[in-house]
Amino acid sequence: MANITPRPFMADPRSLLYLLQLTSPALPIGAYSYSEGLEALSQQGLLPDVDALETWMTQELRYGSIRLEASMLPKVYEAADAADLETIISCNQWLSALRETEELRQQSWQMGQSLQQLLTQLDPAFGPLLPMRPCNVAIAFAVAAARWHLSPYETVVGYLYSWMTTGVSAGVKLIPLGQTAGQQLQQRLYPDIEAAARMVLTTSDSWWDWTSDDSAERADLHSGCQQISSWGLSLASMTHETLYSRLFRS
Prior knowledge:
mainly alpha
């Protein structure tokens, strides 16, 4: 019999519905219009088939900047739970500074602003926790997860799942792939999503804090950054900015 890890406990019985809402393709934040460099790779002949797409997305989950984004989620979740606006704003500024290309920065800000506006329309209580302009999408996602009582694990897995489905959807259009092949790829990526979530939740929450004077925290910072390599995504994103014809905004 397969060894199945129990699903984390949801404190609110409605949390599963909120998680599905946050990760739904119907969420009106415009995720479908971005490829995060995949379109540039496709036009360069570097994304010829499903195996190439799987390799790219696997490496991004293991070593790419999506892990840095995900590392913000538990910190912002905790801050939202404690109504710690200063930490939420600090994390938002850190993520904005992390963006290495204009397209990636505008993607995060546009999706973040759309989610920010949606949340405040659904519940005005979100307003005091999301006053920043611009707002990165990971920040708004984590605040929503905290107020809707998702667990930290579900928050990180949900965010990575949304990122993954956006990339697979782009690949289905660009390569192109059949819908079944896209669904099969999604399932093959699940172990890496789970592994990335476990890493995010077990790594010290101080490693991202480059302002720390503590030598142990600086060691965590060095160790964490050594595991991340975003130059491939950055080059693909910069190339995409100058493509003659484009289906996607990034």
